Structures are given as structure tokens and as C-alpha cells.
């Protein structure tokens, strides 16, 4: 293992070394963008990945993890050494695309709105380069993960539960994600927590229904639900330290289907994001207590469910230093922000980082629409940088 700050012997790669792959990898990326598949349904994508890996001369390819996941192993020619994992996600989102690009989604209501097509293509490009050069010791496990986007249990959780770390002897694991707002050719990373945890909650507000013309004869769960939604806002603004990161967002509301009916119950759903584990406990307790107190004050009651979905994404100290070193070797110190702003989005790569030490880095996608926006598209000019980062990271961690 390369220690913190240690130089890797030999000449590191430069970005121009990877531009020769850009045309081919762009074709792969656009094919994947045209043919997106939702979580746990990435059958064509997995087949495409496995066929490409085999065409590179990689002999150890295993499929079927978490349903459609693929893991391939490349052995270096530098002798014995550890195995490190490189992970890319493959799933798309249930969004109608509005990018109007020639390679826009051909699948109605499904699109790659979070760059997973680019992530998969970049790791395939790195696989082709590494299978050809093998300029490292030990082995590299290429992890193509399904279902990063859904609610718990996600593909990352399932792959860890199915034992991929043990099966392939992975000692460290690394991830990368495109990030709009960071210039193409630049990277962002930070030590410690880099992305938030994600929990989800459901509240069933119970009242007594009746005719909308006679609300006094009911216990109106719609009014109770409205008060609960307003009340939840004070948990962040009045009960938590403003210097700590906590977001509570109500995103679902389901009541009656008719204009003249006050229903018996109303369903509320939402999400909680934070960087601190103790705030997950706080949110679970306080959301339940606040909702129940409000409901009972109006003569109603609640049912409450809180789901711990994804932990915070936490970068280990030594692996973060290695990732920073690799990125700086590729693009220079000025193009690597090692204190990038913490992101309140969640990432199920966190499960792999709980299983093994590792690091997660952002790659710039330029001034594009945000991820999960129907107009989003991966910038293909970023492809050589992603490929280059993976290869340089392998030669940094497993340098001969």
C-alpha cells in the first residue's frame, strides 16, 4: 500500500494518454444513454458490460450480483499485491428526457439523468486500458453496480450483503460521480463525510371522515396533516444547531379523491438528510413526537414508519489522500479541490465504504443542468478525465 504522501515510482499518466479512447467510449456512453434501464432491470446494460469486458481479454467476469451486477477481476503483471475495487453504477431514473440530444433516451419515461451512463462507460474505458497495460501489482476488481437510485434495499447494499468484498478479496474501494457545476477536467473531494445519509419516513394521519359540507362532524385529517407539515419545519429551524447539516423534506401527500369528501386518513411521506449519525436518531424521535402531538391535539392520531435507507458517505483518511494524489498527478494541484462542499444528496456507495476503507470523488461535468433534471446530459469531454483518474489511481495505489 502506498503511504500518505508517498511518490509512486515511474512516470504517471497524463490526460492526453487517454484521449485516444474518447471516441470509442463516447459511442458506448451514448448507446447506454439511448437505452436506459431502471433499478434491478439493467439486463441489457449488464450484458453490454460483460461483453465489452470479455472483448478486452478479461477472463474473470462474474454476473448476477444483486440481480444484474457485474464484477470483473484484472490481475496486474507487477507481482503479488492487494485487490482494490473500482465501482460504477448502471441504473437510470423514471424521468421523461427533454435534452433533445440526438442520443436522447429511446425508452419512454426513462432516462440517464444522473450520469450513470458516463460512469459505466468510463470504467469500461479504464478496464480496456488496464487489461492492456497491467502496469500494477495485485488485482483490480471492476464493480458495475445496479440500482443506486431506489429506496432501501439498494444495489450497493445487496452487493455488499452478497459478499463481493470477501469473494474478490477487496481491501480498498473507490467511487466516482459526475458533478454539474464543477468545470470539466477538475475534481472535488474531501476527507470524512462527503455526502449525506438518507432516511425516509411515512406518516398516516388518522381522523374521522365525512361530508365536506359538514366539517364540524369530522376530525379532519387534511387539516391535521397541514399542521404536521408546518410543524416539521421547526425541527430544523428551532431544534438543531444551525452549523449542523439536517434537511427534513415532505415530498408526498395523499388525501381524498373527491372534492366533497373529508377522508378518514391522509398519507404523508418525506426524506431526512444529514451528515451526523446522532441527527438520524434525533429526526426519527422528533418527527414521530411532533406529528403525534399535533394529531392528538386535534383529536386524531398517527401511524409512523421511519426507514434508515443509506448511511453518510465517509471517505477514509489514507484512501482520500491516495485519491487526491492520483487526481493531482493527472490534472495538477490547481484542478483538484480537496475541500469540496459537502453534498446533501445521498449515495449508496456508502455501504461499500462501511465494508471497506475507500474514497469517493466528484468529476466536473461543467455548467450543465443539475442531476435528476430532465434536460441533464453527461458531457463527453469529461470521459478522458474519468478514465485517466481510474488508471492513475490504480497505478498510485498498486504501483510497481
UniProtKB/TrEMBL annotation:
Cofactor: binding comment: The Mn(2+) ion enhances activity.
Q: Name one Pfam family in it.
A: Peptidase_M20
Any one biological process term the GO annotation gives:
diaminopimelate biosynthetic process
> What is the native source organism of this protein?
Sinorhizobium americanum
For this protein, the record's SUPFAM superfamilies field holds: Bacterial exopeptidase dimerisation domain, Zn-dependent exopeptidases
What UniProt keywords apply to this chain's record, in alphabetical order? Hydrolase, Manganese, Metal-binding, Plasmid
Q: Record's InterPro entries?
A: Amidohydrolase (IPR017439), Bact_exopeptidase_dim_dom (IPR036264), Peptidase_M20 (IPR002933), Peptidase_M20_dimer (IPR011650)
So which cofactors does this thing need? Mn(2+)
GO molecular function terms here? metal ion binding; N-acetyldiaminopimelate deacetylase activity
- Binding residues annotated for Mn(2+), in chain numbering: 114, 116, 149, 177, 372
Write down what this protein is called.
N-acetyl-L,L-diaminopimelate deacetylase
Which residues are in the Peptidase M20 dimerisation domain? Answer: 201-288
Domain of life of the organism encoding this protein: Bacteria
Q: What is its EC number?
A: 3.5.1.47
Lineage, uppermost ranks: Bacteria, Pseudomonadati, Pseudomonadota, Alphaproteobacteria, Hyphomicrobiales
